[in-house]
Amino acid sequence: MAVAGEVLLSGSQELHVLAVDDSHVDRKVIEKLLRISSCKVTAVESGSRALQFLGLDGEEGSLGFNGLKVNLIITDYSMPGMTGYELLRKIKQSSAFREIPVVIMSSENILTRIDRCLEEGAEEFLVKPVKLSDVKRLKDCIMRGETEENRGRRFYKRKFEDDSSPPSSESSTPSSPSSPLPLPPLSAAPFACDLVATSEILSSPHSSKRAKLCNSD
């Protein structure tokens, strides 16, 4: 757990990501992508080690929270012992960590698996291989605080403001119900024009040109 110790000693405000993957190669890849994106990384090989790092394993002597700031947890789905989905559920059941965004990775694009993770509270589901653009996008969202919950709150706030605002400038000048605004007088000119145009169309070979002139009037 030397990496975790380094993170605890650091006072930097950089994004700190807990990466979980049982594959050594995949773990090194995601760790490299995160470091290229200027993130601090704690990489562990299993869900149980991730819980131990967070202090959620219930064992004495585990690292625990101890003021550690984790901004994002990114985990593989298919792992022996504890799957990424089970790890996600453990984190979302914790009062101390449920607000931390959790991203699930998988080499299999299975819709039922994706839906189940998203319904359980996963921030996003990434299909491997994870790209640098994926990591940078996630970092930007987290740094801006744009988790799905925050985006939803802003959406409903905008919707509430739109619903409660006056529909137009006309409503700012209330009118008395006893004195309605006068309606403009009806004119028969447009109908007369239509009748003249109709008769000319029927009687003249240049009907289309005359109809255009009448319409322009």
Question: Could you explain the architecture of this structure?
Answer:
With 217 residues, the protein is an alpha/beta fold. 47% of the residues lie in helices and 11% in strands. A five-stranded parallel beta sheet has the order 2-1-3-4-5, with helices on both faces. Helix 4 links the parallel strand 3 and strand 4 (102-106). Helix 3 (47-54) packs parallel to helix 4 (84-92) and helix 8 (189-203) runs antiparallel to helix 9 (207-216). The longest helix has 17 residues, at 148-164. The chain is globular. The chain starts with a helix and ends with a helix. Mean pLDDT is 74; it is low at 1-12, 60-66, 153-161, 168-179 and 187-217.
Percentage of β-strand residues: 5-15%
Strand order in space, largest sheet? 2-1-3-4-5
Taking pLDDT < 50 over at least 5 consecutive residues as the criterion, the unreliable ranges are 1-12, 60-66, 153-161, 168-179, 187-217
Mean pLDDT: 74
What is the radius of gyration computed over CA atoms, rounded to a whole number of angstroms?
32 Å
How many extended strands?
A: 5
> Helix share of residues?
40-55%
Per DSSP, the total helix count is 9
The major β-sheet equals: 5 strands, parallel
Oligomeric description of these chains = single chain
Spell the H/E element sequence.
HEHEHEHEHEHHHH
Overall geometric form: globular
Which secondary-structure class do the elements indicate?
alpha/beta
Cα-to-Cα separation, first versus last residue? 85 Å
